[in-house]
Design a protein that fits this description.
Largest sheet: 7 strands, mixed
Shape: globular
Structural class: alpha/beta
Number of strands: 21
Strand content: 15-25%
Helix content: 25-40%
Radius of gyration: 23 Å
Length: 558
């Protein structure tokens, strides 16, 4: 899933907002502006929607440049690109009611694919009312028993350490690790097991990011053992969120170019108070280069970096390659741009240590209900209501989610899916004597079946199941230890016609690895550059609400 109000109401998140424009000013005519959006992920799609809806830019003036053959970036869901086939999602983006204010603002304007009279936001509300999340098997022990996860296991020292981290200013925390702030016993608690697997934290990740998560999701403390605060989409996030946005954008004339890699962006820094992007250098699918000169009213919004760059796939009989040499262009573009200005960030802080940022996920495509029915009987949760199940004692720290079926819009009758991941891919398994990184999909399925303890149906499950595995070198890169200067502001100082968006920009006090972060960055960029005279939804901060703060405190001492 995955905050706080800016101390200055006239400045939010490091950029000037609509409220800070001079009184009496109005949004100028932007019908002659061309806007180039680098990357086709949720940040660019959201920016395009805000440009049309709130800034009055004609859709035909908006160009999305994406090197892949599909939009959505990390929010995916599709047929598996392997010989075996089946379905795949690389990850599962959980949503949350209080924190996701910019996303909900966007989705209120986007109609669903099936019903143009119903917004995607309304579909979320209706689906979650029908499928409320309430995990009954959040933690599973080695002996297959299900403990009471409500017992968080925190000691007085743990509570003191947690309070200290939350209270420390980020400038004091600096680039220190999470494990620098807690005793070893803290990392054995039920609380840490559930918190880390919900958000995919490693002990060596940034303590600043953990602090931000505590502050932004303090309302989840009391329900972390059930994940009752989680909101899920009707289908996977591509089908439920990305596809409707893309359809809406295309209906408004937005131009989407696939197979386009942006290699470089030229800038004019002659006037530091009005720094301008002046050109784009592209390579298209056929290898032909193209140079675009930007006019005086043109803009470029850049998604810098990618947490799913260089993702590779495997199946039951193959192992996905772990790519270490940046074959995807996302990081190379940011590395090129970072050399041009000191405030364009330091990408190596995030893409420089793959062993600290990688993990692997898997999707099972099942052609009968045998496994799903047994999991429902075992866990007490029907598909779509159980959230994460985590084997706390597993060597890989293995977790799975059984979504409501169908999870794909085109999913065939009699076909079922579940998704899983593990944080420790470089240690041997408990039932398979290999690291997860070395395992075929069949071996990962064996490890899962061993932890489930379903020996009596194991052969039937293997015969009826396809496995798609995904290795992602940078999936946790946004959690890497860093200082403020390592990420560019959404709108750097003096930026006249460009902005940065996505997971690797700096939005003070907000939390990365959330869809909300990318959508908020897009809203900040559009509203700033186009003078949109509408308020940006404030960051939610639970500690500002006495009842939320009290419930979190009571939970910590449970």
């Amino acid at each position: 899933m995955p905050c706080a109000r800016s101390p200055n109401p006239d400045r939010m998140d490091g950029v000037r907002t609509a409220n800070s424009f001079e009184e009496g000013s109005s949004m100028s005519d932007r019908s002659d502006s061309t806007v180039y959006l680098v990357g086709g992920g949720i940040a660019s799609l959201a920016a395009a929607a805000f440009l049309i809806r709130d800034a009055g830019v004609p859709g035909s003036n908006i160009h999305i440049l994406e090197q892949l053959p599909i939009t959505g970036g990390s929010m995916d869901g599709a047929k598996a690109p392997t010989a075996e086939g089946g379905y795949v999602t690389r990850g599962g983006r959980m949503f949350e009611e209080e924190h996701y204010s910019c996303l909900w603002n966007l989705l209120e304007s986007i109609p669903t694919i099936e019903d143009p009279e119903k917004s995607v936001r309304r579909e979320f509300l209706e689906f979650n009312a029908a499928h409320p999340t309430h995990a009954r098997a959040r933690i599973i022990r080695r002996d297959h028993s299900i403990p009471d996860a409500e017992e968080l296991g925190l000691t007085l020292r743990d509570r003191a350490d947690l309070t200290r981290l939350v209270a420390l200013p980020e400038r004091v925390i600096g680039a220190r690790r999470i494990e620098d702030f807690f005793q070893p016993a803290f990392f054995e608690t039920n609380f840490w097991c559930m918190w880390r697997t919900t958000f995919a934290f490693q002990n060596w990740h940034s303590a600043i990011e953990l602090k931000r998560y505590f502050l932004c999701f303090v309302q989840e403390f009391e329900r972390i053992h059930t994940l009752a605060g989680v909101r899920r989409s009707r289908y996977n996030q591509y089908d439920s969120v990305i596809a409707p946005i893309e359809a809406w954008l295309r209906g408004h004339g937005v131009r989407i170019g696939f197979g386009v890699t942006v290699d470089d962006i030229g800038f004019d820094f002659t006037d530091p108070r009005a720094r301008r992007a002046i050109s784009l250098d592209l390579t298209e699918t056929d290898g032909v280069g193209r140079h675009i000169e930007l006019g005086p009213n043109d803009y470029v919004f850049i998604t810098n970096g990618s947490m799913t760059a260089d993702a590779t796939y495997g199946d039951r009989n193959t192992v996905p390659e772990l790519i270490r040499d940046k074959r995807d262009g996302s990081w190379r573009l940011w590395e090129t741009l970072a050399k041009k200005a000191d405030d364009f960030g330091r990408p190596n802080a995030f893409c420089g240590n793959i062993d600290e940022s990688k993990w692997e996920s898997f999707t099972l495509t099942m052609y009968d209900r045998t496994l799903l029915d047994r999991i429902q009987k075992y866990s007490g949760n029907p598909p779509g209501e159980g959230a994460l199940m985590t084997w706390k004692d597993s060597s890989w720290l293995l977790s799975i989610v059984v979504p409501a079926q169908p999870h794909f819009r085109d999913q065939e009758l009699g076909t079922y899916t579940l998704w899983g991941y593990a944080l420790f891919g470089d240690v041997p398994g408990d039932y398979v004597a290999k690291t997860m990184d070395e395992c075929t999909g069949s071996e990962i399925l064996d490890e899962l079946l061993g932890h489930l303890g379903f020996d009596d149906i194991a052969d039937d499950v293997r015969a009826a199941t396809k496995v798609t595995t995904v290795q992602m070198p940078y999936i946790d890169a946004q959690f890497e230890r860093r200082v403020v200067e390592d990420r560019p502001l959404v709108v750097p100082e003096g930026a006249a016609n460009f902005a940065f968006m996505g997971q690797f920009v700096e939005i003070p006090e907000a939390v990365v690895f959330t869809v909300e972060y990318s959508v908020r960055a897009a809203m900040l960029a559009v509203y700033h550059h186009f003078g949109v005279d509408k308020p940006i939804p404030p960051l939610y901060r639970g500690l500002d609400h006495p009842e939320v703060a009290w419930r979190a405190l009571r939970t910590a001492f449970r």
